[in-house]
Amino acid sequence: MGYVFDFKDAGNYDAWIDKGKNRHCLSLEIKLILDLLSPEKGQRVLDIGCGTGISLEPLLERGLNLTGIDPSPYMLDLAHKRLGNRVDLHRGLAEDLPFDDNAFDAALLFTSLEFTDRPAKAIEEACRVAKDRVVIGVLNRYAPQNMFRRFKSLFFTNIYTQAHFFSIWELRQILFAILGNVPAKWRTTPQLPFVSGPWISYIENIGLVQKSFCGSLIGMQIKPVPKFRTRPLALKIRRRKIYKPRGLVTEMRNKE
To answer: How far from 63 is each of 33, 56, 127, 131, CA to CA, in Å?
Structure first.
């Protein structure tokens, strides 16, 4: 099941988001995820591990059919306060989604895969319920900011003590082991999490800059293309005798 956020975690998460520097980083991360998600009006989108609804909030005005699921009742309470009845919220696990195959056009895992016991199973479930694309946002193992977070968590217990940080290569390896060589693309942001401002935001959103391996968040888009294995089969054809009708003249000659 992984780590489930308790009441204290839920409150601390929203308080952390309210800080100016963190809000700047979050806006860059959300923009990257939305660019990869590319939702269209009327589509069904599932946010797996929706937390307090931070990642769903920017999607509200896009005419989407939104659904969120999270194992923490405390996070869902805050999500309901933030989103109201505009999003269909469920309590459940990423590794065992209570939805039918292809029930959604797209699925999103935004900083939730880090807290699952079985990330491969969570990705498999996301690909099962989403027919067009799956977008994953995870904390980058090799980002300087996350290296500091991991080091700090060795001495001070915090939420990052419970998190598993991913690399781009590890994430791709998991995906290809499940789905085969499916179309996938990735980008990262932010590269400079401790600096903010309009010029920094402009630089952070340049495509070439986002191909860095050092961004704090890895955003990856997957298109779960179905694959079928085929082999030729030998066909047996039965030849039928050609019917030759006998005319009246032929029958009279035979009688003679």
So the answer is: 18, 12, 23, 19
For each of the domains in the chain, give its residue range(s) and CATH number, in order of start. 7-228 (3.40.50.150)
Q: Distance between CA atoms of 149 and 158, rounded to whole angstroms? A: 9
Q: What is the pLDDT of residue 207?
A: 92
Check: pTM over 0.90? Answer yes or no: no
Give me the residue label for tokens 């989403």: 130
Half-sphere exposure of 196 (CA within 13 A, CB side): 10
pLDDT digits (tens, 9 = 90+) for 195-225: 888 899 999 999 999 999 999 999 999 998 6
The answer to whether residues 210 and 189 touch, using CB atoms and an 8 Å cutoff, is yes
**With contact defined as beta carbons under 8 Å apart, do 70 and 49 qualify?**
yes
Q: Where are the beta strands (DSSP E) in 92-160?
A: 104-110, 130-139
Alpha carbons 41 and 55: distance in angstroms, whole number: 17
* Mean pLDDT of the region 164-184: 91
Across 158-163, average pLDDT? 88
Cα 35 to Cα 58: distance, rounded to the nearest angstrom: 12
Question: Sheet containing 88-91: which strands, arranged edge to edge?
Answer: 88-91, 65-70, 44-48, 104-110, 130-139, 217-222, 184-189
